[in-house]
Structures are given as C-alpha cells and as structure tokens.
Predict the 3D structure of the following.
Amino acid sequence: MRAYRFWITLSVLLGTLLWVEAGGWSEPLDSSSEYGVPYGGVKPYADLLAKPYEYHGPERELDEPMDVEEVRIGIFGPLRGHRKENGLSMRRGAELAIAEANAEGGYRGKPFKLIFRPDDHIWGSAKEVVKLVYADKVWAVMGAIGGQSTHIAEQIITKAHVPLISTASTDCSLTRINIPWMFRCMPDDEQIARLLGEHLFRERGYKKVVGIADKTYDSRLGMREFEKMARRLGTPLALSLRYNSGDKDFSQQIRLIERSGAQALVIYGQPEEAAQLILQMRERGMTQKIFGGPQLAFPAFPKLAGVSSEGVTVASPCNLWRNNLMLQTFNRRFFLRYAQLPDVIAAYAYDGMYLLIHAIRAGGLNRAKIRDTLAEIKVFHGVTGKLRFDGSGSNISLPILAVVRDGHFVPLSGFVNQSSTLRSE
C-alpha cells in the first residue's frame, strides 16, 4: 500500500513539473494595465466590475415635487481634529461648484444649496447623515474624509436610496460590495500601491524597502495594499512599522529602520508626523530615499519638513501641476474666493459636486434617476484630469508620482496622466 501511494505521489509531481515546463507557470502574471486594473493583461473568467451595478427598486415612477424652492445637496466632513483642514478644503471645492452652477441658472431657475453636517466622530457621523437624508431632505450626498465615516454613510444611503459620492477616500472596499448608490472620484489604495510598487521595485530595483504607517484606518489600509503589492511584485517588505497619530519621538522606529539596511522608506501618514520622522532621520545622518502615500501630497508637507523634504516622492491621486486651461481657470477662481490655491481634496470635491449637479439636471428631482445618470457616466474630464469609471462607480484612472523640488511638488517625468480640456466624451 505504501509503495502504491509513493508511485501515485511521484506521478502527480512529475505531471505537475511537465505542465510547468510546458508553460503552465512559465510566465509571470502581467500586473500592469492602462487604467490601473490589476492583471489587466490576463483575461478573467468573469469581470464583475465591467457591468454597472444595477438598481431594480422603486422611485423612478415618482413625479417631480412641485413645492421645492431650493435643490439641496448634502456634504459632511470634519470641523475639528487633525483632518479639519481636509474638511475645509472639501467644503470649499463643493461651494465653488455650487456657486458657479447657480450663476448659470441653478436647476430650472431654482438655486442649488449646500447643506453641511459635521463628521467629527465616527458614530456621530451616522446621526449627521440621517439628518441630511431625512431632516434636510437632500437629493444627494458628498463625503466623507476617510473610509470609516464613508462606510457608515454608505449603510444609511443604501436604506434611504440616496446617491453618495466619495471625493476624499481611497478605501478599495467602498465600491466593491455591490451597492448601486455609491460612487468614488479618487483612485483607490490598490492603484496607488501599484504605482509606488512598480516604481520602487521595477523602475528603481530596490530590494530592501521598509513601510511605516500611522495607526489610523486609512493609513493602515493603504499600507496593507502596499504590502500586498510588494509581495505580488516579488519583493516583500523588509519591515512594516507603525506609530500613533500625534507622536513626536520616532527614535524606536528609526533604530529598526537602520538595522534593517533599508534602501528606501515608504510612509503612509499625515504630513505632521511624516515631517518629524524624516527630520529625525536626516539629523541622524540617514540617507534612505523617502516615498509617501497620498496623505503627503499636500503643500503642508514640504513646508513642515523644510529642506529634508527635497527629493521625497509621493503618490498623488491626480496631477494638479499640469498645464491645462480648465485647471488654471479653477485655480484662479478658487484663489479669488478663498485667497489660497486649492489642494487635491478641494479639486476632487469640485469635480464631484459638478457630477452631482449634472446628474440632478439630467435626471430631475428623483433620487433613483439621479443615481441612474451617475451610473451612466463612463468618462469625465474635470479639473483633476480624466476620470474613468468602472461598473462599480469607482474611478480607475491612474494616480501620478510627484517629487519635491525647491519646496514644491512637481510631477515625476513619465508618470503624468493624459488630460483634456473637454468636459465629457
């Protein structure tokens, strides 16, 4: 019996080896594609994201209300805490889009009105979104800053049948759970991880890379996707470290980075802590190349890190430094209104609000028809560049790499998205 099992096992092993030699596993999977879909060169058995998520429920048959004096659109974001500046940027980008739409006549002569609710605590967020939907009676919602609060809102809008557009979250799972009311403007963590991974491991050829992230929800998710991408590209991270938001002393993490012999460090975290980490590394004489996730693609980072930020390369969700008439016009109008240039979050909020306004004008005051219009949009040219939506409602256009030069971000050559001054195709 044992001899029989031995020969059976040997036959299976030999058959497997012959299959591999014949080409079964002889070529690595192609993880590259034009718009950031992993393994775009491999034909899948079924592509669940190719066909738009469908809504088969009621409400399309409802008549448009006649007693509406203003068309309300909800937005929720933080007023306090370390992300309050992000919340302010999102609100300002949305306000500018609303103001321009009203200058064009609003919705059939009725003004659009932005209704803001705070998002300062994850469980308080649910209450505020409920107020937007049922008390304020908004026709669509924009928000939030980060994946946790957006997931909370997602549960509410699914029951209430209200379109929700996320303009400031890179959480992959937001649009992968078959919810037809959810849409996302930013590229997700997987696309960002691919961009960083291919640049570090394929372009630069690094063999020892350390990842470090703060313990917040979005940073942990982003680093997790980067860790997965590093393994997928054949170079697992040498170390993956964590720190707390608000930390000022990074001596323990720095010692571990030194001992690892790392060639490069990838940071997922807020500009304040990232700047402190880099400053302390440079003071110690460490010369590792520094890379960052999308949280660092803001003007605050080079200001905080000073000369230590020179040469730091970050993944930016979009290219706000390109020569584009629409972008230049937006920058000028934003500066005239707020006395500062827009950041990434303000730009995506502007584009996201423009999409909602377009959907309301096309679908009318009917939430289901507004959702249908959003789901029909495949390509949109906005101030953030070319947005290309898959069936889940997620933007799959590539992010870009930007490097700090003389205290300012500039696109890294070869990684700039194609852009156009056209609004739609």
